[in-house]
Write a structure and sequence with these properties.
Helix content of chain A: 55-70%
Number of strands of chain B: 10
Strand order of the largest sheet of chain A: 6-9-10-3-11-12
CATH superfamily of the largest domain in chain A: ABC transporter type 1, transmembrane domain
CATH architecture of the largest domain in chain A: Up-down Bundle
Number of helices of chain B: 20
Largest interface: A-B, 196 and 189 residues
Oligomer: heterodimer
Helix content of chain B: 55-70%
CATH superfamily of the largest domain in chain B: ABC transporter type 1, transmembrane domain
Low-confidence stretches of chain A: 571-577
CATH topology of the largest domain in chain B: ABC transporter transmembrane region fold
Structural class of chain B: alpha/beta
Largest sheet of chain A: 6 strands, mixed
Distance between the termini of chain A: 75 Å
CATH topology of the largest domain in chain A: ABC transporter transmembrane region fold
Strand content of chain A: 5-15%
Distance between the termini of chain B: 81 Å
Strand content of chain B: 5-15%
CATH architecture of the largest domain in chain B: Up-down Bundle
Strand order of the largest sheet of chain B: 6-7-8-3-9-10
């Protein structure tokens, strides 16, 4: 919790002003009873109408000052807490944006969402509550105790018993509730996760008629959450009546001993009554403090969850003094590259060695799960190699500034991801300041222009999240246009034409050659026919390179490649050719 | 406080922007929403009635305690007669014990009731998701829907559990005090109620504003949720395109909007307390003024005035509370509005004249089918064809031609605009969607797997399948080999969105899932697009076996996959422009011929 306090620092002024204004309100509140007594004793009882009017006006004036204090306190505490939440949220989002995939996998998307919204809201509320009650409750509490001790020292021995009892109840509950609230947040994550999966996979759920199954699954998540909440809050619910009981029993003791003192003539009856009044005040302030403390235990769970993200070590980062020289060529070299997703797992890539020159087209082919995507994902450092190194123009990519590196590389990933917004905006991801001509040019090469202009709104057509309203092939073509507009030094098409028909694919590849000179292009594909244009082809099997060369070379002396080729070429073609 | 930004001191952070602007959103029907919320509350009326009763009792006990103390001082301490004092203290202790117990019970029942309510509301919301048409989700960010089921419902529960007891107890206390005041003096009571209209007006004035700010707050929170969801799912593309800063900016802007709305909501709602205090003091001044005057005129005794003034002091607490709670309830209304918006969305309806079918042969006919996602922009135009039982139909054509849409229409993910789709001669709109889909096995273009084990993902095809059957299906789909090579084998838990596996491997799992479902009609939409051709060839045999005796729709770009189909439909721009067997179409030398030849032309050259 302490570590998060620094996010409040820029708003120290607000955080100081809020309780100060609260102090004004409290003082005004405390002054009112004195004025009241004055009105009753000297006004009404003495029939002094003038005094009633006069004091009444003073009361109103005091009340007015009180309002100013109260409202100002609200204003400043709201500002401080909301800005605190804003900054923390920004910071958290920034951090998440730096996350590598393994970082994200560790937390899960749904949990990250909860942390960014729900958890920060908890912290925000805590800050606000603290600023508003911070002065009031302790003031009433301390004031009450001082007044009580001042009234009668002997009676006040009771506090030596009741306050430790109260404190230990507090501590006990705080300690107990922490794991319980932690469980609550985890289960919120889970509910979140089930809902998210059902939305993303709604077609699968419907296709397999698993609505009832999913409803059961949600019911389970929902029940788990409900039970966790009940279990956690149950503790809180016991706390309040328990506090009251301790305080009330203390009052009984005061009555008993007070009675004895009065009997001995050591205390006046009025003092006993006043003493009991102060105890009431102490009890009231304790309840306020208790309320906040309860909230603290919940918020500290949230604080921990937020900190967990903030302090997460990002595994793919810029080196210090990373090389900021732009990438000019597109020579790529893999040197003894090994890679595995999880440490213990068998390597997905084993001893990968190859070198390609600037401007070459490199085909990558291999069986499902042989490591094709993994290999190309290493180039823009979406993952870092486990051992070995990758060089671009002779520089280890880990020494190059990440931004510079990725600026030089463009990629169309296997699963086409588009973002909400218009088609134009999506294409412009590749180049923010692209002109209309550039957009059209790259859309034309990606063979997307024609279908786009046929849409009612053309390039301004708004596509839903993930472009659900477009067909798979249309999405792929927009993703290709997005990659092309960047005019990269290295272009990676990761099975990016799977939803395109052959003719379209060929048009795209031919178009590519024309527009981008000296652009090293990696094409992962299943079709040998796609490969035939390539200068070099990498044949992968079970994470190892089993063939490297041109189509003709490989066909001549690589059994594995020939087998793939045979699986595609078919006898009948001959018949009609 | 309109829409200009407020800028208290320029701010040390320096980012308290002066040119702040946010969209104005308003709750359309707050009272209607409250009514709907009330309908929900009514389901738990016994819980609430019980809580109300307990609140009533604890209010009484709250009065009894101090009363007894007073009595104790009067009868024992002042006369210094301590016979029975201990008994008296025991009784008082009993009252306190009871009071604490009732306080606990009250909290307990309230907790159970509100949690149950939230449970039911969440359940209804989730179930609703599955009775809405797929169209509903096409243009809505997932994050916003998630926010409604978590953040909004959470907010409702928080307000309910905090406010309801307070609301009850304030009302009880208020009524009690008014009764006491009336007993003392009716004219004075009237005087003390003079400020009530002002109180109501002020509460209303503020609440009308806070309500919309709360609503804007929740709406923006939903938007923010959507943005986060989108940006985490798409982080790969963000990284590749170096878009982090842009996205952070986008986030910050939305976050700023949320903050500004939040500040306003908090300030307005937080000001209610102090403002009520002012009104109370005003009322108090009026009471003392009139009281003094009445006493002066001897309308009322001085003793009564003193008591009355004390009561009117007590009067203020519950009024304050009520105003506060009323305001908090606005926040619940704002959230409820967003929840009900979805709950009231029109559901997918089943036809009134449902035909009960136990089994189908698998004959599929399209009769002049038209369909559009967006009105006025048909993507399927007058499509007609007839597939006999057990036939394999291949849909071929350029991307975006409408192949996937045709397949989606068979599954009734969408309903046709015009024309008919018939299965065994029955219009599929007369078959319950669930019944219809029970005959279908679908492998979709976007392979979606769930974050459970591989085994459970395959079992999704048929829940009662044994482990052996699951493995059998995986073997047929050629997924078995790579699965057993994973460290945890079939028990490997997939991460969210099925990450960790390659796209091709995910497709194989999806195929195994469809195989396990053992459907009458099979729809394979680019089912093997990311699978290498050798593996595909292996599966092909299994697929051919699988298709035997089933009507199958196959969408593929690899023409080698479609060649063996009984009928090939060439779809172009939403229309069927050619149809026939592979041989027929090749002889025809039309669109299909060109497509086919272009794909293999170069290969043939090389081979020659």
């Amino acid at each position: 919790m302490k570590k998060l306090i620094r996010y409040l620092k820029p708003y120290t002024l607000f955080a100081i002003l809020a309780p100060l204004f609260m102090l004004i309100e409290v003082i005004c509140d405390l002054y009112q009873p004195t004025l009241l007594a004055h009105i009753v004793d000297n006004g009404i009882l003495k029939n002094n109408f003038q005094l009633i009017l006069h004091t009444g006006l003073v009361m109103l004036a005091v009340a007015f000052i009180g309002v100013i204090g109260g409202v100002s306190c609200t204003v400043f505490s709201s500002l401080a807490s909301q800005y605190f939440g804003r900054d923390l949220r920004n910071e958290l989002f920034k951090k998440v944006q730096q996350f590598s995939f393994s970082n994200i996998d560790k937390f899960h998307t749904s949990s990250l969402i909860t942390r960014l919204t729900n958890d920060i809201n908890q912290l925000q509320t805590l800050v606000m509550m603290s600023l508003r009650i911070m002065v009031r409750a302790p003031l009433l509490f301390v004031g009450g105790i001082i007044m009580a001790i001042y009234l009668n020292k002997n009676l006040s021995i009771i506090f030596l018993f009741s306050i430790p009892i109260l404190a230990s109840i507090f501590l006990f509950i705080m300690k107990k509730s922490f794991p319980l609230f932690s469980e609550v947040q985890k289960r919120i994550d889970y509910v979140n996760n089930v809902v998210r999966e059902n939305l993303v996979g709604i077609r699968v759920v419907r296709a397999f008629r698993r609505e009832d199954y999913e409803k059961e699954r949600f019911k389970y998540a929902n029940t788990m959450l409900m039970n966790a909440v009940i279990k956690a809050i149950m503790l809180m619910i016991i706390a309040m009546p328990l506090f009251m009981l301790v305080m009330n029993l203390s009052i009984l003791v005061v009555l008993w001993f007070g009675g004895l003192l009065v009997n001995q003539g050591n205390m006046k009856v009025g003092e006993v009554m006043a003493y009991i009044n102060y105890m009431g005040q102490i009890m009231f302030s304790l309840m306020m403090i208790g309320n906040i403390l309860m909230f603290v235990s919940r918020a500290s769970v949230s604080a921990e969850r937020v900190l967990e993200v903030l302090e997460e070590k990002i595994d793919i980062q810029n080196k210090e003094n990373a090389d900021k020289t732009p990438i000019r060529g597109g020579k790529v070299k893999f040197e003894h590259v090994y890679f595995s997703y999880f440490n213990k797992e068998e390597s997905v890539l084993k001893d990968i060695n190859f070198e390609v020159n600037s401007g070459e087209i490199i085909g990558i082919i291999g069986t499902t799960g042989s490591g094709k995507s993994t290999l190309v994902n290493l180039i823009p450092r979406l993952y870092d190699v486990t051992s070995g190194r990758i060089l671009i123009d002779g520089r280890d990519i880990r020494d190059i500034d990440l931004k510079i590196l990725r600026d030089a590389i463009s990629m169309v990933p296997q699963d086409t991801i588009l973002f909400s917004g218009t088609i134009k905006e999506n294409i412009c991801w590749g180049k923010e300041d692209a002109t209309y001509e550039e957009i059209i040019e790259s859309a034309k090469i990606a063979q997307a222009h024609e279908f786009i202009i046929r849409l009612p709104q053309g390039y301004d057509t708004v596509i839903g999240e993930r472009g659900v309203t477009l067909s798979g092939g249309q999405k792929q073509r927009i993703a290709i246009a997005r990659a092309l507009i960047k005019k990269p030094k290295i272009l990676i098409l990761d099975d990016a034409t799977s939803a395109l028909d052959f003719a379209t694919e060929q048009k795209i590849i031919h178009g590519l050659r024309g527009i981008i000179k000296n652009c090293t292009t990696f094409i992962v594909a299943q079709r040998v026919s796609t490969m035939m244009n390539a200068d070099k082809i990498i044949v992968l099997d079970k994470g190892k390179i089993v063939g490297f060369g041109s189509h003709a070379e490989l066909l001549k002396n690589n059994d594995f490649y020939r087998e793939i080729y045979k699986s595609q070429i078919d006898e009948e073609v001959m018949k009609y050719a | 406080m309109r829409r200009e930004g407020m800028r208290p001191f320029g701010g040390p952070g320096g980012r308290i922007g002066p040119r702040f602007h946010f969209e104005k959103v308003e709750i359309k029907d707050p009272w209607g929403t409250l009514r709907k919320l009330f309908v929900y509350l009514k389901k738990f009326k016994w819980g609430f009635i019980f809580v109300f009763t307990l609140t009533f009792i604890s209010s009484i006990l709250g009065i009894v305690g101090p009363y007894l103390i007073g009595r104790g001082i009067d009868t024992y301490i002042i006369p210094k007669k301590f016979d029975g004092f201990l008994n008296f203290l025991l009784i008082l202790g009993g009252v306190y014990l009871l009071s604490s117990f009732i306080g606990w019970l009250q909290g307990y029942v309230m907790l159970k009731t509100t949690q149950k309510l939230v449970f039911v509301m969440r359940r209804d919301f989730f179930n609703k998701i599955h009775s809405l048409s797929i169209k509903f989700f096409d243009l809505r960010p997932y994050g916003d829907i998630i926010s409604r089921i978590t953040n909004d419902i959470d907010n409702i529960s928080m307000v309910l559990s905090n406010s309801v007891i307070q609301f009850f107890s304030s009302i009880t206390t208020l009524i009690g005090i008014i009764i006491m005041m009336i007993r003392i003096s009716i004219p004075m009571t009237v005087v003390s109620l003079v400020t009530i209209p002002l109180t109501i007006w002020l509460t209303n004035f503020i609440s009308n504003r806070t309500r919309n700010y709360f609503y804007a707050n929740q709406t923006l929170l939903g938007k923010l949720n959507g943005l986060i969801e989108e940006d985490i799912s798409g982080i790969k593309v963000i990284k590749i395109f170096n878009r982090e800063e842009k996205e952070i900016k986008r986030f910050e802007n939305l976050n700023e909007e949320l903050t500004q709305v939040g500040v306003r909501a908090q300030i307005f709602s937080g000001s209610i307390g102090p403002l009520m205090n002012l009104l109370n003091n005003l009322s108090f001044a009026i009471i003392t003024g009139f009281g003094g005057y009445f006493a002066f005129k001897k309308f009322i005794s001085i003793g009564d005035i003193t008591v009355f003034i004390n009561y009117s002091r007590q009067f203020t607490r519950p009024i304050n509370e009520l105003a506060n709670q009323y305001n908090m309830i606005q926040s619940a209304i704002a959230s409820a509005e967003r929840v009900f918006e979805v709950l009231e969305e029109e559901e997918e309806k089943e036809s009134t004249d449902i035909v009960e079918i136990k089994d189908i042969r698998g004959e599929v006919e399209f009769k002049n089918v038209w369909f559009s996602y967006v009105k006025g922009n048909p993507v399927i135009k007058n499509v007609s064809f007839n597939v006999k039982e057990g036939e394999v139909v291949a849909l071929v054509g350029p991307t975006g031609a409408g192949k996937t849409t045709i397949a989606s229409l068979v599954a009734r993910f969408y309903d046709v605009d015009e024309g008919q789709i018939l299965i065994d001669g029955i219009d599929i709109r007369k078959i319950r969607r669930k019944d219809l889909r029970s005959f279908l096995g679908i492998v979709l273009q976007d392979t979606l797997l769930f974050s459970t084990s591989i085994k459970e993902n395959i079992r999704y095809g048929r829940l009662d399948a044994t482990d052996e059957e699951v493995i059998e299906a995986a073997k047929l789909a050629h997924a078995h080999d790579f699965i057993i090579n994973l460290p945890q084998g079939y028990d490997t838990v997939l991460s969210e969105d099925g990450g960790g596996l390659s796209q091709g491997q995910r497709q194989l799992i999806a195929i195994a899932r469809a195989i396990l479902a053992n459907p009458k009609i099979l729809i394979l939409d680019e089912a093997t697009s990311n699978v290498d051709t050798m593996t595909e060839k292996y599966i092909q045999n299994a697929m051919l076996n699988l298709m035997k005796g089933r009507t199958s729709f196959v969408i593929a770009h690899r023409l080698s996959t479609v060649r063996n189909a009984d009928m090939i439909l060439v779809v172009y721009n939403g229309e069927i422009i050619e149809r026939g067997t592979h041989e027929q179409l090749i002889i025809k030398k039309g669109f299909y011929y060109n497509l086919y030849m272009s794909q293999f032309a170069e290969e043939v050259e090389v081979k020659d």
